[in-house]
Specification:
Elements lengths: L21 H5 L4 E8 L2 E6 L4 E7 L7 H14 L4 E3 L5 E5 L5 H11 L14 E2 L14 H16 L9 E4 L13 E6 L8 H7 L2 H6 L6 E6 L2 E6 L9 H5 L12 E6 L14 E8 L6 H17 L6 H8 L1 H8 L31 H6 L18 H14 L8 H12 L6 H14 L3 E4 L3 E4 L5 H4 L1
Parallel strand pairs: 6-7, 7-8
Antiparallel strand pairs: 1-2, 2-3, 3-5, 4-5, 8-11, 9-10, 11-12, 13-14
Helix pairs in contact: 4-8, 12-13, 12-14, 13-14
This protein binds iron/sulfur cluster (2 copies).
The site of one iron/sulfur cluster has 16 residues, from helix 7.
Length: 465
């Protein structure tokens, strides 16, 4: 049999080394340091004195072939054809000839793109697919990012921030973007579980497959109006849209209740402090396409609070931890609401929930978002013949008498006080002030474990001895 050359398949992508510029190959693992020269330009110094210059250009992430050809032509003209795309979709031109930098920057600007994003600046925003490409999305991606970055453009092109600022967007909680570890994360959120089209389910979906698609086991079989269908335990649903992925008869998108949340303080870097997860700052902003003005304003506000108050090189999360989260909320004018507390039934398993909550300054949370939100405020302005202190004392007695037997939410206390002293003009505003008095005096603490409660502080066993 004639010699047949064995056919090699499944060879994967070519080795990256084949594409390294010669100067990088030569200095691989032998770089001494790097320095940012001016906005968008830095150089790496090799042990042997080689210098590699990088010029970073913003890209809108979605690029036409014609535009990519233009970018490649610039690389041919100035950098022997070498460039790279960063993970945040910046384009980096890699030069060995310093004298070509200014001409390259002029050509980039002629194309209409800014140069910057290196060092103490905002780099490009990394984002996910959005409405155009992904069925799960609670918001758009490119649209929001374009609006935010248009507004923050100055912070890309200049180095006037205290440190690096990384922004990310993911259009649902599956977060294909790096929202869990960015200084500012814009995250699309669904606020309702999936709808169920019972008449369709059995026709278009495999029910066992659908049930097993749910990571929290919230779906089970049900017969509804004679249809083989399913039901959802909405308390266990985390709005992940996995069920919608396998079953088009369970859509999750809702133009009225989908929106955006803003998270802050994450980072990947190990410098100065360990990596951090982003934490919730603003629970919900309604989608407002095409320019999302509320989101743009909220992000700019957070950027400026950090820029005005952070120490040199302090990242967002480091800054917030130094001044404390309550102080950050106050500085940024963000209300702390009950939605900031992770009350998802499985949050305890992931240690996402804690009973340690500093209440100072946070009680307006309850005022703004308690279960009484919907109630009429009718007698708010009525003159009261009962004082805040008197109401606080009555509340304290109620909490103390029930100690170890029953716990009260702030709303329960409020209702009880209004029922008891309503004829003396006790209203919601007064009861809020009374709760605040109890907390500020230290007689009660605001705890969260299985609900949000006003309690007498627990004595440590050791302290009792
Ligand atoms: Fe789709 Fe969610 Fe990924 Fe956005 S983050 S692309 S909605 S899975
Ligand atoms: Fe389960 Fe996710 Fe569907 Fe909710 S959205 S029912 S958690 S698969």
């Amino acid at each position: 049999m004639a010699d047949v050359q064995k056919r090699i398949t499944d060879i994967g992508p070519p080795h990256y080394e084949k594409f390294l510029p010669p100067i990088i190959k030569e200095n691989y693992g032998k770089w001494l340091y790097h320095e940012v020269v001016k906005p968008g330009v830095m150089y790496h110094m090799g042990e042997n004195g080689d210098k590699l210059f990088t010029v970073r250009m913003a890209s809108p992430r979605i690029l036409s072939v014609a535009r990519i050809r233009e970018i490649c032509a610039l690389a041919d003209k100035y950098c022997d054809g070498y460039l790279r795309f960063t993970s945040r979709n910046n384009v980096e031109f890699l030069l060995t000839d310093e004298s070509k930098i200014d001409a390259l920057i002029a050509d980039i600007k002629k194309m209409g793109f800014p140069v910057g994003g290196i060092g103490n600046a905002i780099s490009n925003i990394v984002h996910t697919q959005g409405w155009v490409h992904c069925h799960s999305s609670a918001t758009d991606a490119s649209g929001v990012v374009k609006a935010v970055m248009d507004d923050l453009h100055e912070y890309f092109a200049e180095r006037k921030l205290p440190g690096k600022l990384r922004i990310a967007l993911a259009c649902c909680l599956n977060m294909c973007g790096a929202v869990h570890c960015s200084d500012i994360a814009i995250l699309g959120v669904h606020t309702r579980g999936p709808k169920i089209f019972h008449a369709e389910i059995d026709r278009v979906c495999e029910i066992p497959n659908l049930i097993s698609s749910c990571p929290t086991a919230a779906i089970r079989t049900a017969e509804v109006d004679g249809n083989k269908s399913v039901e959802v335990n909405y308390d266990s649903c985390m709005y992940c849209a996995n069920c919608y992925t396998v079953c088009p008869a369970m859509p999750l998108n809702n133009p009225d209740t989908d929106g955006i949340s803003i998270w802050v303080g994450g980072k990947v870097s190990n410098a100065r402090s360990q990596p951090k997860f982003s934490k919730l700052a603003i629970p919900f902003i309604k989608n407002d396409p095409p320019r999302w003005p509320e989101v743009v304003e909220a992000v700019r506000n957070i950027v400026e609070v950090w820029a005005d108050n952070a120490r040199p090189y302090e990242r967002m999360g480091e800054f917030i931890e130094r001044i404390g989260w309550p102080a950050f909320f106050e500085l940024a004018g963000i209300d702390f609401t009950r939605y900031h507390i992770d009350d998802f039934r499985y949050a305890g398993l992931s240690f996402n929930r804690t009973a340690q909550l500093r209440p100072h300054g946070f009680l307006d949370a309850w005022a703004a978002t308690s279960e009484d939100d919907e109630e009429e405020e009718g007698d708010e302005e009525a003159a009261a013949s009962i004082s805040v202190e008197e109401v606080a004392d009555a509340m304290f007695k109620m909490v103390k008498d029930a100690y170890g037997v029953k716990k009260f939410k702030a709303g329960d206390l409020s209702k009880a006080m209004i029922a008891q002293f309503g004829d003396r003009g006790c209203n919601k505003k007064l009861t809020q002030a009374a709760v605040r008095t109890l907390i500020d005096s230290g007689k009660c603490v605001y705890t969260y474990f299985g609900g949000s409660f006003v309690e007498i502080p627990h004595e440590e066993a050791a302290a009792k001895k």
